[in-house]
């Protein structure tokens, strides 16, 4: 926790669960990426945390933006980004949304099939497209499904189709899985991208860009490599597989940019047991899966939790949210150790929550308000 967040919580005492984001941390993270990868453009993943203050800071620092909807395109523009700094990175887009983004000046689009290419060709003539390929995501704590991307062998056909329809076949993208702690995870994907570049060259079409995606982690309960370690591993992979023909590169950090900048303040609502002989207590907070902690699903992301009683004896606890839904249990398979002395009304601080929390709590399920956010 930063001193700025600590002082804010001490003096403001906001009621109910809330997220507090320190912009100084976001600034430091952006500068770390820019320094470690000076020849790579940063496209911040807006979905991670679209707070206007975060977007405005990043726009001022020179960041580009990866967007998944027209609404996010408008957010990036409102924050001060010019259209040439915006990518429409969702591979699933309504044709009318592509048309709107094109009217707003966006010229860079993701695809993973011929049908998506055809939509773009109809309403965004001459736009640049990059084809997303599948990656296994091994080593990621929040692995991605096969929802986005195609098998690498399909990519040349899709990109050639784009070229034939008058679009610019610009490059290849992939995502190695969110919260990727293995710095070597990019190697196989870069190798696939290089193979696609060669195949396209044989077809008389020159690709220019590799989108290295996101995956850069936030520190939760386990240490993670520094940005510099990822930068070195990625640079080595590009030199190994592309040789002297180094492509343009972009990255799409989201979690790695804002995750460590945020702290959620929450409150203990209830402490109980399910039987007199139960060694495990149930601790219910005023925030749960439906209030912003959706990434505790399958206990994939385990957030650091701090209390004022952390020096006391610890005991295993099931951690759950306040809603009237049995799925609103965060940690049960692997109980969380919390102080035996923890009581109803105690404040808990959930660290590393700057990413993928407010965006997952937009609906007031059960009447519980969406997660409040304060950016300082």
Question: What does this molecule look like?
Answer:
- With 376 residues, the chain is α/β, with parallel strands linked by helices.
- The model has no long low-confidence stretch (mean pLDDT 96).
- It has two domains: 50-253, Alanine racemase (TIM Barrel), CATH 3.20.20.10; 260-375, Beta Barrel (Lyase, Ornithine Decarboxylase, Chain A, domain 1).
- It is built from ten helices and 18 strands.
- The protein is elongated.
- The longest helix is centred in the middle third of the chain and has 17 residues, at 186-202.
- Strands 1, 12, 13, 14, 15, 16, 17 and 18 form an eight-stranded mixed β-sheet that branches. Strands 4-3-2-11-10-8-6-5 form an eight-stranded parallel β-sheet.
Salient structural properties:
single chain; 376 residues; TIM Barrel; Lyase, Ornithine Decarboxylase, Chain A, domain 1; 8-stranded mixed sheet; 10 helices; 29% helix; EC 4.1.1.17; pyridoxal phosphate; ornithine decarboxylase; De-COase2_N; ornithine decarboxylase activity
């Amino acid at each position: 926790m930063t001193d700025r967040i600590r002082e804010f919580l001490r003096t403001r005492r906001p009621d109910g669960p809330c997220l507090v984001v320190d912009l100084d941390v976001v600034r430091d993270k952006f500068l770390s990426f820019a320094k470690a990868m000076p020849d790579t453009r940063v496209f911040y993943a807006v979905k991670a945390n679209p707070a206007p203050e975060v977007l405005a800071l990043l726009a001022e620092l020179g960041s580009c933006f990866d967007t998944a909807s027209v609404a996010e395109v408008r957010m990036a523009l409102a924050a001060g980004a010019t259209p040439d700094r915006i990518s429409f990175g969702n591979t699933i887009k309504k044709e009318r949304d592509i048309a709107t983004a094109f009217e707003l000046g966006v010229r860079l689009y993701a695809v993973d099939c011929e049908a998506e290419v055809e939509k773009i060709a109809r309403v965004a003539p001459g736009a640049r497209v990059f084809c997303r390929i599948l990656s296994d995501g091994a080593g990621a704590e929040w692995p991605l499904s096969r929802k986005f991307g195609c098998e690498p062998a399909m990519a040349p056909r899709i990109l050639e189709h784009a070229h034939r329809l008058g679009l610019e076949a610009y490059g290849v993208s992939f995502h190695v899985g969110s919260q990727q702690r293995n710095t070597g995870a990019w190697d196989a994907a870069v190798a696939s991208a290089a193979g696609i570049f060669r195949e396209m060259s044989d077809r008389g079409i020159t690709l220019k860009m590799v989108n290295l995606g996101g995956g850069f982690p936030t520190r939760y309960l386990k240490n993670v490599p520094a940005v510099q370690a990822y930068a070195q591993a990625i640079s080595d992979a590009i030199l190994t597989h592309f040789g002297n023909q180094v492509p343009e590169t972009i990255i799409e950090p989201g979690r790695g940019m804002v995750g460590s900048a945020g702290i959620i303040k929450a409150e203990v609502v209830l402490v109980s047991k399910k039987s007199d002989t139960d060694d495990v207590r149930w601790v219910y907070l005023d925030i749960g899966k439906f209030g912003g902690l959706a990434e505790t699903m399958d206990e994939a992301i385990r957030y650091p939790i701090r209390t004022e009683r952390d020096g006391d004896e610890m005991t295993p606890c099931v951690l759950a949210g306040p809603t009237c839904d049995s799925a609103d249990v965060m940690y049960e398979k692997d109980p969380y150790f919390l102080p035996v002395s923890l009581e109803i009304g105690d404040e808990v601080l959930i660290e590393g929550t700057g990413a993928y929390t407010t965006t997952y709590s937009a609906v007031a399920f059960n009447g519980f308000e969406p997660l409040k956010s304060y950016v300082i």
